[in-house]
Design goal:
- The longest helix has 35 residues.
- A hairpin with a 2-residue loop joins strand 7 and strand 8.
- This protein is α+β, with helices and mostly antiparallel strands.
- It is built from twelve helices and nine strands.
- It has two domains: 285 residues, no CATH class; 100 residues.
């Protein structure tokens, strides 16, 4: 906690300015992207700016070869993100040095620090609410579906393994979401901000470790949120150390807000009210989006995972050779209009899916510049048996498949037990 009566050393002022500008360079774009209605437009402008800068800041300045993609792909650890963070560090360092040199007589940056802490608190609270409500609404993790349950652990990516673990238990998702929402709520109020920083730091330390250890591409952003949580909690570091480590009395904290005129005080109240209103509105919107998506789901008679028992191509029977890239191993028919074919080896193939029970045909569609449709005939001698014949591209295929019973797998049927005489670890 800065001492209002002490003059800050030049090193302290320099370090503070560097940290302040580095944080602000990261906070402002995320804050603008969260603006209702205009957020998407502002985010698009931000991406367009960095797309224009990449040939200079990335290719020319850092010697990175090839085009640097700037696009919202779902990953926060793209090459351009690392280039961006590098320049945030450089620019923050330059601004800190220049400001410190030109402003030699300044005693401290106490006022700047007070406003920075408010910006960090609310930006971190926004992220905590966002992630917590995403878990509560079912927008981040979902229970494993038939496709996931039909895979082996070896088929999954590290991120897929983590997502399956986190999504398996709705109660665990609710609990982790509660911790994030609690951190966000505590951060909004000055009296509980330090406690909020500590809770957020504990939550984000776990998230950062998951992201690094399971290759989840949100390493940069989660690390930034952890840094922000530490910054908020560090405000009361001397008091925390006094109570928790040195066993000495700690003086009360100064909870006064920055001095504002009447108009700015009114604006602060309105801004805080709008921020708090945005939280339930965001939750309702996320729930509505999830409900809309679930309403689009269609669990037709062919839904589920089908294991290929026999397969022939152009009249030649192809045994279950694990190195055969042309033989199917599984067919997954999703609850949305898509299907997935997993060959014995190689990449999975995604198709659009439609069925015509009257004509007893299914259509697998390849989307691209020139869409291609493959129409196959099907028969169901039994509810759990599917026979497919027809042309797939230039080849004629015939396959017999059996539906995999996934409701009675160990994972889905074991359930919770209060008493376990021995560990049931399979």
């Amino acid at each position: 906690m800065p001492d209002a009566d002490a003059r800050w050393s030049r090193t302290k002022r320099l370090g503070f300015l560097f940290l302040a500008f580095y944080l602000l360079f990261n906070i402002v774009p995320h804050a603008l992207a969260a603006v209702p209605v205009a957020g998407d437009w502002l985010l698009e402008l931000w991406l367009m700016l960095w797309d224009a800068l990449m040939p200079v800041l990335g290719n020319a300045a850092l010697g990175i070869e090839g085009p640097i993609e700037v696009a919202p792909t779902g990953s926060g650890d793209m090459t351009w993100n690392y280039v961006q963070q590098f320049w945030f560090v450089v620019i923050a360092a330059v601004v800190a040095v220049v400001w410190t040199v030109l402003d030699k007589r300044r005693r401290d940056h106490a006022t700047f620090y007070a406003w920075l802490r408010i910006a960090v608190r609310y930006s971190l609270a926004l992220a905590m609410f966002s992630y917590g409500l995403a878990k509560w609404s079912g927008n981040q993790f979902q229970p494993p579906d038939a496709l996931r349950l039909g895979e082996t652990f070896g088929d999954a990516s590290p991120m897929g393994l983590a997502w399956t673990f986190l999504g398996f238990s709705p109660a665990y998702c609710w609990f982790t979401g509660l911790a994030e929402v609690l951190a966000g709520a505590l951060l909004v109020w000055r009296r509980t901000a330090t406690l909020g920083g500590l809770v957020a730091a504990a939550v984000m330390a776990n998230v950062v470790m998951i992201n690094f250890c399971f290759d989840v591409p949100v390493k940069l952003y989660s690390s930034l949120l952890l840094l922000m949580a530490v910054v908020v909690a560090a405000h009361d570091a001397p008091r925390l150390l006094a109570v928790l480590v040195y066993n000495t009395p700690a003086p009360p904290a100064d909870l006064s807000a920055p001095v504002l005129g009447p108009k700015l005080r009114a604006l602060r109240v309105v801004a805080k009210a709008l921020f708090l209103l945005m939280v339930p509105v965001s939750f309702v919107m996320q729930r509505a989006a999830v409900a809309e998506m679930m309403a689009m789901a269609s669990y037709g008679p062919l839904y589920g995972l089908w294991e290929v028992e026999t397969f022939s191509r152009d009249g030649a029977v192809r045994p279950a050779d694990p190195n055969d890239a042309l033989r199917w191993r599984q067919l997954f028919v999703g609850d949305f209009p898509y299907a997935l074919v997993r060959p014995m080896t190689g990449e999975r193939q995604f198709f659009g899916f439609a069925s015509d029970p009257a004509a007893k045909t299914i259509t697998l569609s390849e989307h691209g510049e020139a869409p291609v449709e493959h129409v196959l005939s099907f028969e169901q001698p039994a509810p759990d048996v599917l026979e497919l014949t027809g042309k797939l591209g230039e080849a004629t295929i015939a396959a017999r498949l059996r539906k995999v019973d996934l409701e009675h797998t160990e994972l889905m049927s074991r359930g919770f037990r209060w008493i376990s005489e021995r560990p049931y670890n399979r």
